[in-house]
Specification:
This protein has 3 helices and 8 strands. By secondary structure, the chain is α+β, with helices and mostly antiparallel strands. β3 and β4 form a beta hairpin. The chain is elongated. It starts with a helix and ends with a strand.
């Protein structure tokens, strides 16, 4: 449009145009020039790094059993599943693990039954190091929260005892591991967790004596 206007003003028709039309043409020229620059700025594409999410599953317990590793070497992570929100190689992750176990022992004069229910929660930062298209390693640090309830019932010659222990703890843990990225939205990982926990507990006990 600007080139057409310039050619028009330079044509032979310019000498027949009144002064006011020349001024109007100059104003129109600058107006079109301004909007032309503005439209070019709008067309510039700004490259933004997207924020993605991923569902993760913890396979540390499976790997431990497969290789028959000992708990004396490191603590098995109790976190079963979680979500990771990441931008390139940096991410924030939140995970939860719920464990339940029951043990019953019966004898000639009585027996014992123990039930343990625990919930392990954490949130933290993770730095990813890409090894290939589907495998990566990671380093991170997490804030931990643990709740564990232990109920024990014992009976011996008609003498019954019940004990309840409730534990509540907080802590921090550096962690590192390896992850298999099945898809862009699903990953399976194994890790080494080094927790430092501070907890307190309450103990309740009663019997029929």
């Amino acid at each position: 449009l600007i080139k057409i206007l310039i050619l028009f003003l330079e044509s032979k028709q310019l000498k027949y145009m009144p002064t006011i039309n020349i001024k109007f043409g100059i104003i129109l020229l600058f107006t079109l020039f301004y909007f032309n620059i503005f439209s070019q700025e709008e067309l510039k594409v700004k490259v933004k790094i997207p924020i993605n999410y991923e569902i993760t599953a913890n396979a540390t317990q499976f790997v431990k059993q497969f290789f028959s590793l000992s708990n004396n070497n490191f603590e098995v992570s109790p976190y079963l599943a979680g979500i990771r929100v990441y931008k390139r190689f940096h991410s924030i992750r939140a995970q939860i693990g719920i464990n339940y176990s029951k043990n019953t022992e019966n004898g000639n004069f009585g027996g014992n039954k123990t039930e343990i229910l625990s919930s392990n929660n954490r949130i933290g930062y993770q730095k990813e190091i890409r090894l290939s298209n589907h495998f990566s390693s990671f380093l991170g640090v997490d804030l931990l929260h643990k709740i564990e309830n232990t109920n024990t019932f014992s009976s011996n010659n008609g003498f019954d005892t019940e004990q309840k222990i409730a534990e509540n703890g907080f802590g921090i843990a550096p962690t590192f591991g390896i992850q298999w990225n099945i898809t862009n939205r699903l990953g399976v990982y194994t890790e080494v967790l080094l927790p430092i926990m501070k907890s307190h507990s309450s103990n309740f006990q009663r019997s029929n004596s």
